[in-house]
Structure formats: C-alpha cells, structure tokens
Design a protein that fits this description.
Length: 135
C-alpha cells in the first residue's frame, strides 16, 4: 500500500515537468530511471596518465619523467582534481599558472618551456572547441 502512495507522490513531482514539455510542443514524455553514483577517489589519487598533462608530454622522455615525479608529490585530493578538465574559462589560466609554478624549479629551462608551451597550446585548443560547442 505504501508503494502506491510513493508512486502518487512521484507522479505529483513529475507533473510540472510534463506540463512544461507539453507547452513546448511535446506529444509524449519519457521517464528514465536515474541512479546516484558516488564519486570514487582512488586511495592514492588519480594517476599521472589520468590527467591531460600526462598525455601531452612524450612518453618516457626526460620532461615527462620529471613532470611525473612532481605530480607524485601532490596530495591525493589534488591529483584527483587534476584528472578533470576545468569547467570555466578562467580555470584554464589558473591551471596553467599552477603548472608553471610547480614545474619551473623541477625542469631545465628548455624542458620547462617545452612543457608549458605544450600545455598552453592544448588549453587554447580546448577553449576554442568549447566555445564553438557553446559550453
């Protein structure tokens, strides 16, 4: 009996969305189940290769090994955060500043310049693609 009341309550919550869809010209509404998924943070944080920066540098090069070593010094929460791309335009510049600050002492001037130019070129490409998509 309780399930019937739960169904009625769910229907009442759906009613405004159904009316809005019909007002915009929809002839039918489809209900899809949505299940919450907990965010999984690996015990040691994300891997270097889970980040976009980890995939931009030539694998197993001196630059990549040095940047990877710097990445391993970060706390797990920061590693996890770096595994996701920035959502807003200003966050890209913030991320580049972050990498500039942490890589400068760890890399030779040529390697540092190579890495930062690689990162900034990729970030610009991502920003352009997102702006074309309207994100």
């Amino acid at each position: 009996m309780i399930a019937i009341f739960q169904d009625l309550a769910a229907t009442a919550r759906l009613f405004p969305a159904v009316r809005e869809a019909r007002q915009t010209g929809a002839s039918a509404v489809q209900v899809q189940p949505v299940f919450p998924v907990k965010e999984y943070i690996p015990q040691g944080g994300a891997s270097w290769y889970d980040t976009m920066e980890g995939t931009l540098l030539p694998y197993n090069s001196d630059v990549e090994r040095a940047a990877h070593a710097v990445f391993l010094t970060f706390p797990p929460a920061l590693r996890h955060k770096l595994a996701f791309t920035p959502e807003h335009r200003g966050e890209w510049a913030e991320r580049l500043r972050f990498w500039r600050n942490v890589l400068k002492p760890a890399l030779s001037p040529d390697a540092y310049l190579f890495a930062i130019l690689r990162f900034s070129a990729h970030y610009r490409k991502c920003i352009r693609r997102r702006s074309r998509m309207g994100v």
